[in-house]
Write a structure and sequence with these properties.
By secondary structure, the chain is an all-alpha fold. The chain is built from 5 helices and no strands.
């Protein structure tokens, strides 16, 4: 009878949830929003490295901001001298940097 009582205690302790032990999952230290943010930052940095060093257009000279984003083009198309002036900037860069 004593073995039966001991085995039932062992079974109940196996299935009992211990709330005092911290979760040891790899993602337990990170919440989902911070994991998403970390993934987004990793993606942006990876794209930036690719565009600056490994892209076929990386060998052409020019501003780094123009190589990384469309913000350079948007500035000249929207804000500079009333907008629609990116073609003037492209011609200026061709004259300064070569064709």
């Amino acid at each position: 009878m004593r073995d039966t009582a001991r085995s039932s205690e062992a079974q109940s302790s196996i299935f009992a949830m211990d709330l005092t032990t911290p979760n040891t999952s790899p993602l337990s230290a990170l919440s989902w929003p911070s994991a998403f943010l970390l993934s987004a930052i990793t993606f942006v940095v990876s794209v930036a490295i690719y565009r600056l060093f490994f892209c076929p257009a990386a060998r052409f000279p020019g501003p780094i901001l123009a190589a990384l984003t469309f913000a350079y083009e948007a500035y000249f198309d929207i804000f500079k001298e009333g907008g629609g002036r990116y073609w003037v900037e492209i011609n200026r860069m061709h004259d300064a940097l070569g064709k």
